[in-house]
Amino acid sequence: MLDVQGLTKYYAGLPAIRDVSFTVRPGEVLGLLGPNGSGKSTTVKILTGLLRASSGTITFDGRPISSDLAAHKAILGYVPEEAHLYSYMTGPEYLQLVGRLRNIPDARLDEKIERLLRLLDIYDDRYQTMSAYSKGMRQKILIAAAVLHNPRLVVFDEPFSGLDVSAARVLKAFVRALTEEGKVVVFSSHVLEVVEQVCSRVVILKEGRVVGHDSVDRLREMMHLPSLDAVFATLVVEQNADQRSRQILDAMKA
Amino acid sequence: MRSSLPASVASDIELRRSLIWVLAFLVTPGIMLSLQVVSRYAFAVHVQPSLVDTMTAALAIVFITYSGVATGLVAVFVWDALAFDRRDAMVLGPLPVRGTTVIAAKLGALGAFLLGTAIGTNALAAALFALVASGSKGFVAFGLHAVAQLTATVAAGVFIFSSLITIRGVLVFVRGLRLSAALGALMQLTFMGARCSRSSSSAGGAENNRGQCWRHQPPRLASNCVVSRPLRDIERQTDC
Question: Which has the higher per-residue pLDDT, A114 or B224?
């Protein structure tokens, strides 16, 4: 179980997140929701060990991740928001690099890479360097790299970026399949429809603070609202979308 | 066609392209330079032995300067790739790899790249020079001459490379990335100028071969003078 308590992070004295707490049990998908700058990415980067929290604790199966960060990263799969890759490598070469750094035996690694490339429809492009890959193909490589070692905790940060409709459908189903395998999944996104479809519970962040934390159904019931979109709008969005769009249109015409 | 190639071929092709570029731009002038000066050195060894010491000193300056300029040029073009950047952090950060391992790997890659560049650009010149300098004294003498020249030129390359990387590192640390990036562009221009002026110096040398004395040549860039003056000394001693 992933347990986050009182997580706070300051950048140059300014708080990015304050007192963020949640738990994710095996077989659950926790959605992290929030507008730009709400602290989703900061939370994700602390969970993955890319950033250190200013205060607060994160434990996985009762052990603080800070006590042995390398051990935590060994059971973690992370799909980052931006596709930072060594683009001079081919897809299989990149996956081999990641697999070897995760100590996967070569024979098993080659077999896994081939299977994943075929399943993600990028096998035919295996000889191209990733500099020639589309955004969606790079995203598929990131997804393959994140799950290559059968992680127990998987963190997705905007994983649908650049994916076409069919790949997105496969990924949604894959996230649900992960839960059936008892994985702990954290899913950060601002695509509300996707979060509503794949997440069992959501944490809604606004200006670095948790403003809502429950299952999607409970949040809808409690707030007497028909959808997650309406819940999100009530908790987070200050501007009327129609009014704002008209103002932009006026500015455009002026 | 590509689907019939083995898995790592595509990036190998890119690597080969890079090597060809390096070969054409850095090694070829080195070979031309070697052929130009070593033939004169061979002439002195056999016909005017009294000139050998002076010419050896001049040749040392020529080859060491060439090595420094060639390695420096490579350094200013690749130093961004040798730093630990955001991409490294995002790729390696979530992996169970300790910081010391990453730093050791970067330093290892830096060392391998540096030695590869310095040896690659200087090996042929060292072999040519050793062939002439050892004369008929046998394989051991040839080996000693080659190793001595390679050691001196590689050391020069290592010194220039390390100095540039250190300056860059200090600038990034003290003044931030923007100034060091601006310096990077300036250094690329400087070393490219030095490399190109070296080519024009070779062309000038060829003209000198047809009887012009070095004192009548117009002044060139300072970096050019460092190389071309010893070259012209050699030419003057054998021609004028």
Answer: A114
B84 CB neighbours in chain A (<8 A) are none
Kindly tell me if the per-residue pLDDT of B76 is higher than 50.
yes
pTM here is 0.71
What mean pLDDT comes out for the span A199-209? 89
Confidence band of B232 (pLDDT split at 50, 70, 90): low
Tell me how far apart the alpha carbons of residues B140 and B174 are, in angstroms, rounded to a whole number: 49
Q: Is the pLDDT confidence value at B8 over 80?
A: no
Identify the H or E element spanning A22: strand A14-24
More confident residue, A192 or A103: A103
Answer for the pair A182, A214: CB distance below 8 angstroms, yes or no: no
> A86 lies in a domain?
no
Instruction: Note down the domain range covering A207.
Output: 2-75+151-253
Closest residue on chain B to A45 (Cα): B94
> Residue A137 domain-assigned?
no
Q: How near does any CA of chain A get to the CA of B41, in Å?
A: 44
Give residue A141's pLDDT: 94
More confident of the two residues A254 and A60? A60
φ, ψ of residue B83 to 5 degrees: the values are: -85, 165
Q: How many domains does chain A have?
A: 1
SS3 per-residue string spanning A67-131: HCHHHHHHCEEEECCCCCCCCCCEHHHHHHHHHHHCCCCHHHHHHHHHHHHHHCCCHHHCCCEHH
Q: What is the CATH number of the domain that holds A235?
A: 3.40.50.300
Q: Is A132 on the interface with B (CB under 8 A)?
A: no
Which residues in chain A have Cβ-Cβ distances shorter than 8 Å to B85?
Answer: none
